[in-house]
Write a structure and sequence with these properties.
The structure is a single chain. By secondary structure, the chain is an alpha+beta fold. It has 14 helices and 16 strands. The protein has helices at about 5-10, 10-30, 55-70, 100-110, 155-170, 190-195, 200-210, 240-245, 295-315, 325-355, 360-380, 390-420, 425-455, 460-469, and strands at about 45-50, 75-85, 90-95, 125-130, 140-145, 175, 185-190, 215-225, 225-230, 245-250, 255, 260-265, 275, 280, 280-290, 320-325. Strands 2-3-1-4 form a four-stranded antiparallel beta sheet, with helices on one face. A hairpin with a 2-residue loop joins strand 2 (about 75-85) and strand 3. The mean pLDDT is about 85.
């Protein structure tokens, strides 16, 4: 099939094809997510275990080593790193790029259940998927309003119970990173002289509290046609419940916790602090889901923040202050490249008009530039890419190559016109003479960029958009 002849003889078909390309290209553009940079996926899973009061040596010996023994055989595992700190241990697992993250999470969770046992007081390991795509794109800070003298750090429990779920339910939000703040807890201040007077020790107090603060299920009891489930509710719900815990009973004397200690509400020990503009606060970083439109997600989060400030935080005399988001940088970068593409195209058209001195010939190139750019969005959307600085830079480079090819074709057609040929003959012969050279030139450029599409490391994922565009 002679494409050149077909394009000249079937103008209506070509125009319909151009209209379809432009229409579907615009539809694809409206569905492309906007991001500052391409999504770089790195399958990394982190298992974090907390053991309050333990030293790094105990964390390493009692927890980390046991976890590493069961995790080292997971398929696709490339690297395993561990970090032991006071009261906390962390194991970071890096997998090959073709690993399915959900499947890897399931394998890690199952393997963690194979750890024989943990020391008393160790919290259940928290397993989460992390990586380059999970860096926060929004930062907000919880602060107190004027007239509120309560330290803002003490609102962490309120944030976890009343606020977190509203932010996590926003479409496009993957997770929250919340540094700073101290949670509420109940303090038991033991008086040593009273313990000695009753011949008790600290261990007696600890054992009594641990054994009393439990709910016990006693099975079911059948009465007639009905079965009643029997449970003993023993978890503490108030300071008085803790104070009534029996430490020692001799038949003649009963010693309860309030006899030897003071029970009062308090807060956990502060291990970090967040300072913003010279004032304390609780920071909240919002991580996006992979491939989400950052601009739309940020707008939804801001609407939810405004609602929270009005409905939930205002009665507590606190507020969220918006600190950082990427909207300005994304829009600025995209607008800059759009402007460069526009001005570059206009300058190319002016140069063509200056040298060709033909409005009709220049108009052909002027129509080819936006048509090709809009058509590119169809393939980008089909391949699951997003609109970012890198992909737009690739389009800008491609515009230059498109103009070069168009100049060669138009100039050769114009040469045949000056030889006295009809418009059809000039278009046909002028294009036939150079189409092989143009395809060879274009394929050379494609050959340079195409290998980048198949590179799976971070560099390949970062520059894949420019190669596709």
């Amino acid at each position: 099939m002679d494409i050149v002849s077909f394009s000249i003889k079937k103008p209506v078909t070509i125009i319909v094809g151009i209209i379809l390309v432009v229409m579907f290209g615009i539809l694809s553009l409206t569905r492309l997510p906007y991001q500052l940079s391409p999504s770089v996926e790195e399958p990394v899973i982190t298992a974090r275990t907390t053991w309050r009061g333990a030293t790094p040596y105990e964390i390493e010996r009692e927890i980390i080593e046991e976890q590493e023994k069961v995790l080292k055989g997971i398929p696709g595992l490339v690297e395993m790193e561990s970090d032991s700190q006071n009261g906390r241990g962390e194991v970071t697992l890096s997998f090959t790029l073709d690993t399915d993250l959900d499947e890897a999470l399931l394998r890690v969770s199952n393997k963690m259940n194979e750890v024989p046992s943990y020391p008393d007081g160790v919290d259940r390991p928290v397993i989460s998927a992390t990586g380059a795509t999970t860096s926060p794109v929004i930062w907000i800070v919880l602060k107190t309003l004027p007239g509120n003298d309560r330290p803002v750090e003490t609102y962490l429990t309120f944030f976890e119970n009343e606020v977190r779920q509203h932010l996590e339910r926003v479409e496009g939000v993957a997770d929250l990173f919340v540094p700073g703040g101290i949670e509420e807890e109940m303090h038991v201040v033991v008086q040593p002289e009273l313990l000695a007077a009753y011949s008790l020790t600290i261990n007696d107090v600890i054992n009594a509290l641990q054994s009393a603060n439990v709910n016990v299920s006693a099975g079911t009891m059948g009465v007639g046609r009905r079965d009643y489930r029997i449970r003993t509710i023993g978890e503490f719900s108030s300071e008085e419940d803790i104070g009534r815990v029996v430490l020692k009973s001799t038949g003649q004397q009963r010693i309860i916790l309030s006899d030897v200690a003071i029970v009062k509400p308090g807060f956990e020990k502060r291990t970090g602090v967040v300072i913003h503009n010279g004032a304390g606060g609780i920071a909240c970083g919002i991580r996006p889901e992979p491939g989400v439109n950052i601009l739309e997600m940020t707008d939804r989060v801001q609407e939810r923040i405004n609602w929270l400030n009005t409905e939930i935080l205002s009665p507590e005399n606190i507020k969220f202050q918006w600190v950082y988001d990427q909207r300005r940088y994304i829009r600025g970068a995209i607008d800059l490249i759009k402007m460069n593409i526009f001005y570059g195209g206009m300058l190319a058209i002016c140069v063509l008009l200056l040298f060709l001195r033909s409005i009709r010939s220049t108009l052909v190139v002027a129509m080819a530039i936006p048509t090709s750019i809009i058509g590119t969005f169809i393939f980008m959307q089909a391949m699951g890419r997003n609109l970012n600085v890198i992909s737009l830079a690739g389009i800008a480079f491609a515009v230059g190559m498109l103009v070069d090819n168009a100049i060669v074709v138009i100039e050769n057609i114009d040469r045949h016109r000056h030889m006295g040929k009809t418009p059809f003959e000039a278009s046909y012969h002028g294009t036939r003479e150079v189409w092989g050279a143009i395809i060879a030139s274009t394929l050379t450029t494609v050959a340079v960029f195409l290998p980048v599409v198949f590179v799976r490391e971070e560099a390949g994922q970062l520059f894949r958009d420019i190669a596709i565009a």
